[in-house]
Write a structure and sequence with these properties.
Structural class of chain B: alpha/beta
Number of helices of chain B: 25
Strand order of the largest sheet of chain B: 8-9-10-5-11-12
Largest sheet of chain B: 6 strands, mixed
Oligomer: heterodimer
Distance between the termini of chain B: 26 Å
Strand order of the largest sheet of chain A: 6-7-8-3-9-10
Structural class of chain A: alpha/beta
Strand content of chain A: 15-25%
Order of helices and strands of chain A: HHEEEHEEHEHHHEHEHEEHHH
Radius of gyration of chain A: 21 Å
Distance between the termini of chain A: 55 Å
Number of strands of chain A: 10
Helix content of chain A: 40-55%
Helix content of chain B: 55-70%
Shape of chain A: globular
Strand content of chain B: 5-15%
């Protein structure tokens, strides 16, 4: 622990501003079978997240957005490139280094039904990361109460099982677990995709409130451009394992440059029949234009 | 410890409708495994027998009037009397005492066998399941070797080498039977190894050992207990078998040795054979029953139907005869409503609970769909929108009951007033032909074992009565109709060879293949990427216009509603909240709930603004907001 403190102190000021840097990251999975070709999930990824900043990561299923989040967390193999957290290279961090890191880096998963162990009480789930860091039981209990309060759950939730809660409440528990150690970065992997509309609004409010209160940074992965626009400072768009566009949220989500982002923007329907009809027409026009361009460029659509 | 689990908020907020008045009522009743085990007479009997046996074995020294080997030479093969309550054997030893000491040795050696098997199989299974890789490969080899050994011959060899000790035999048998624990544990661990909570524990920095003990061990606990009950029974049988053959230790009293001794004197005193056999049968039977009872308790399904039927037998009989007469002459629908394609009137759907009450999931829902119209049913999870759609399709689970109302399709009742179930007889004539269905999960609705072509052709041959060749031509045309570029290739492909969007197109092709009048689409685009969703919505719109079918679109997405629907029904907690033309509902919703839902939309909102607090101050509806989560 003193080691990391020394490391932090030794870091130069400019490197410190960026909490997380990912440079030329490549993730490959071994293929199935003898001498099978490797499957490349991520190619040449470059992103960075500053203190108190949210980077939204948007893309379709299979685009590699979840894999990027998992690589940062050490749950996916890093085959090339570098992941730097607070100036320290963590691309090949050992289990022991991860344990130290877990104080600063946490996760909220998509599915609130499988991300909580069904056999453990909420109190035990929340106390787990505290216990790993060697916090005493009495102190941990106090912290669990604080956490439940912070995410807006009743304190009698401690002795209940996950199955007694609705999806939105479970996601609050998962957020509380991520907050337990007051991390600097939370990787949010589609945290509102499995939730109902009004629950989603509530949980997004919670994410924003927590950021306001604690200054935490988010790497916010979602397939929903509206969600990403709402919560992010900057947005990166992923397509087939690469980042095709990156920039301020407002620019990327309203006036995108890359053809894929343009398609994505016009594909998400708006809740008004007449405006949606216009958007539909715009989309068809865009698809036609892009097809023409592709033909002119000599690439089959 | 019975928990009542409600889908609604933990603490009922002010303004929640009082239960029993309207909307969804009742609670899902669940009980714990132990409670269910003790409710099961089989379980109670098994536990009672095993406990008695255990007490007899533990207190054998106190309970037994004689030592196991104390022989009264002057009193052999005696009938039961006041001193020897079960008589004596050929050497004048007390049968009752030997039975008690036998229980001690037999049961504890069976336990030893199970303990050895667990000690080897459980940790090996945990490690192999969690880490996979080389350890798993090697241990699979060892397991295969162990399982291919002829058990009885190995045991005979061990007896020859190490003498007649029952302990050694049972340790050897424990090793031989440990693969069963290994396999059980490994497959249970494999199923949870990639669960997100295990990932979350890794991110928290938990060591592998703590992850295995805290998160993974809990899933193998129950199967291990069941397995142990079975293994202990087998161990007793094997051990007694060996001893019956005369391979036991004659200096020790066990049930097997007694059986062997009784068999020698079977013509003189048959009861000598009976008592150990009875004790063994009782114990092994109880172990098997206990295993079954635990398994039943773990399986969630409680036997609700039977109990309910008994309670309401008279009532049921009355309604049954009433519906029977109604079925003969299907009641005519209300005059003036025949022109509606589908009309749902005051529909109620409920599920009987263990305590005899009925949990209503749909209550008093009425709406209609006309030909060529798209009706959207919007609501959040648990609003009853899918249950409503399924009752029109007649695809409700067996346990569901229609508790009120009626459904008519094209001027005929599919659920007449007073019916308790959807009439499958009436619906099977319609389903697939005139009513078709587009599901939410395209991939899980195609059978992976058959080609897409086969799955399209077979229903057409059956429903339309056309030849296979004709159906194939039609299927090709349908596939190109739904925008598949190379119908040929898709026709021959298996479901895993196409993408999710493609699979949904195939299912839509299937849904329109028999020229239906009504298509029920249950969240048809929820599982798809946004860009694919837009394509599929375009497709549904085109087809609907071209074919003029009525569509019921169940969704939670107002964008999808705006894109497709003519009219909208909003549902909450099983009730119909609001109904109207799409522009009216989306632009000027009258009901507070619809307003709250629309306010939760992110489109057009100021980024990084609070959604709920802003909406609450705008509509001043703190109670409505509390009810939603």
């Amino acid at each position: 622990m003193t080691e990391t403190a020394a490391l932090r102190a030794a870091e130069s000021a400019p490197a410190r501003q960026k909490l997380l840097r990912v440079d030329n990251l490549v993730v490959e999975y071994a293929g199935k079978g003898f001498r099978a070709r490797k499957f490349r999930a991520l190619t040449d990824i470059n992103i960075s997240i500053g203190q108190g900043e949210t980077l939204g990561l948007v893309g379709e299923s299979g685009s590699g957005k979840t894999t990027l989040g998992r690589a940062v967390l050490g749950l996916a193999p890093v085959s090339g490139g570098k992941i730097t957290f607070e100036g320290k290279d963590i691309s090949q961090a050992t289990r022991k280094e991860r344990r130290v890191l877990s104080r600063d880096m946490q996760v909220v998963f998509q599915d609130p039904y499988t991300s909580l162990n069904p056999a453990l009480e909420i109190g035990d789930i929340l106390a787990e990361p505290l216990g790993v860091q060697g916090m005493e039981q009495a102190a941990a209990k106090k912290r669990v109460k604080e956490l439940l309060d912070q995410v807006g759950l009743p304190s009698d939730a401690i002795h209940r099982l996950p199955r007694e809660f609705s999806g939105g409440q479970r996601q609050r528990v998962a957020i509380a677990r991520a907050l337990a150690l007051s991390p600097k970065l939370i990787v949010c992997d589609e945290p509102v995709s499995a939730l109902d509309l009004s629950t989603q609004a509530r949980v997004l409010d919670l994410f924003l409130q927590i950021q306001k209160d604690t200054g935490v940074s988010y790497l916010f992965v979602s397939h929903d451009l509206d969600v990403v626009r709402h919560i992010s400072h900057r947005v990166a768009v992923m397509y087939r394992g690469e980042i095709v566009e990156q920039g301020p949220a407002d620019v990327v989500t309203r006036d995108p440059e890359h053809p894929y982002t343009q398609r994505l923007l016009l594909a998400s329907p708006v809740p008004d029949p007449d405006r949606q009809e216009k958007r539909r027409a715009d989309r068809h026009r865009l698809l036609e234009e892009q097809r023409m361009q592709a033909e002119q460029a000599g690439v089959p659509a | 410890m019975t928990e009542s689990v409600e889908t609604s908020a933990l603490t009922p907020a002010p303004g929640t409708p009082a239960p029993g008045t309207s909307g969804q009522t009742g609670t899902v009743v669940r009980s714990t495994v132990l409670k269910r085990l003790f409710k099961n007479p089989m379980g109670i009997i098994a536990i009672a027998i095993l406990l008695t046996m255990a007490v007899m074995a533990i207190f054998a020294d106190v309970l037994a009037p004689f030592d196991e080997n104390f022989a009264n030479i002057s009193k052999t093969l005696a009938a039961p009397d006041a001193v020897n309550i079960l008589g004596t054997d050929s050497s004048g030893r007390d049968v009752w005492s030997r039975l008690l000491f036998g229980a001690q040795l037999t049961l504890s050696s069976a336990l030893l066998c199970a303990a050895v098997a667990i000690a080897i199989g459980l940790p090996a299974g945990l490690v192999a399941g969690y880490y996979a890789g080389k350890f798993e490969a090697v241990s699979n080899w060892v397991v295969s070797i162990l399982m291919s050994l002829p058990g009885l011959i190995v045991l005979l060899t061990i007896r020859a080498a190490f003498g007649p000790s029952v302990w050694i035999a049972m340790i050897a048998f424990g090793v031989l039977i440990s693969p069963s624990y290994f396999r059980l544990t490994r497959s249970a661990v494999q199923s949870v190894r990639n669960e997100l909570y295990v990932d979350a524990a890794r991110v928290s920095g938990l060591s592998d050992l703590s992850i295995i003990t805290r998160h993974i061990f809990s899933v193998v606990r129950a199967p291990i207990i069941i397995q142990t009950a079975a293994i202990a029974g087998v161990a007793i049988a094997i051990q007694s078998g060996l001893e019956f053959l005369g391979l036991g230790d004659p200096a020790k009293a066990t049930w097997g040795v007694m059986l062997s001794e009784g068999f020698k004197n079977v013509y003189l005193t048959p009861t000598l054979l009976f008592w150990p056999a009875f004790a063994m049968a009782l114990t092994i039977g109880a172990l098997v029953l206990l295993g079954n009872a635990i398994r039943d308790a773990l399986e969630d399904g409680e036997k609700i139907k039977h109990r309910r039927q008994k309670a309401h037998q008279a009532e049921d009989a009355a309604t049954a005869s009433a519906t029977k007469s109604a079925r003969k002459t299907i009641a005519a629908v209300e005059a003036g409503t025949e022109h509606h394609l589908v009309k749902v009137t005051n529909l109620g759907v409920g599920y009987p609970q263990a305590d005899g009450t009925i949990k209503k999931v749909v209550d008093d829902v009425s709406f209609h769909v006309d030909r060529g119209e798209i009706l959207g049913i919007v609501g959040e999870s648990g609003s009853g929108k899918s249950q409503t759609a399924f009752s029109i399709l007649g695809l409700l689970p067996d346990t569901a009951r229609i508790v009120g109302g009626a459904i008519q399709f094209d001027g005929n009742y599919t659920v007449a007033p007073g019916d308790e179930k959807v009439s499958q007889e009436r619906l099977s004539k319609l389903r697939g032909k005139r009513i078709s269905y587009i599901p939410q999960e395209p991939m899980s609705n195609l059978d992976p074992a058959f080609t897409i072509g086969y799955q399209l052709v077979t229903p057409m041959v059956r429903v339309l009565g056309i030849s296979k060749a004709e159906a194939t031509t039609r299927a090709m045309k349908l596939l190109s109709d739904v925008g598949i570029v190379s119908p040929d290739r898709t026709f021959r492909a298996y479901p895993h060879e196409v993408s999710g969007g493609m699979a949904q197109r195939v299912l839509i092709a299937g849904a329109i293949s028999c020229e239906p009048d009504l298509i029920i689409a249950d969240e048809p685009t929820t599982a798809l990427d946004v860009t694919v969703q837009a394509d599929v919505l375009d497709l549904i719109r085109d087809l609907q216009r071209r074919l003029g079918v009525g569509v019921i679109l169940v969704t939670h997405n107002f964008g999808v509603v705006a894109d497709l629907c003519d009219r909208v029904v909003v549902m909450q907690n099983g009730r119909l909240v609001e109904e109207g033309p799409v522009r009216e509902i989306l632009r000027e919703p009258k009901e507070r709930y619809t307003q709250t839902l629309l306010a939760s939309m992110l489109e057009g909102k100021e980024p990084m603004s609070m959604l709920v607090s802003a909406a609450a101050s705008a509509t001043a509806s703190p109670t409505a907001k509390e009810n939603v989560l």
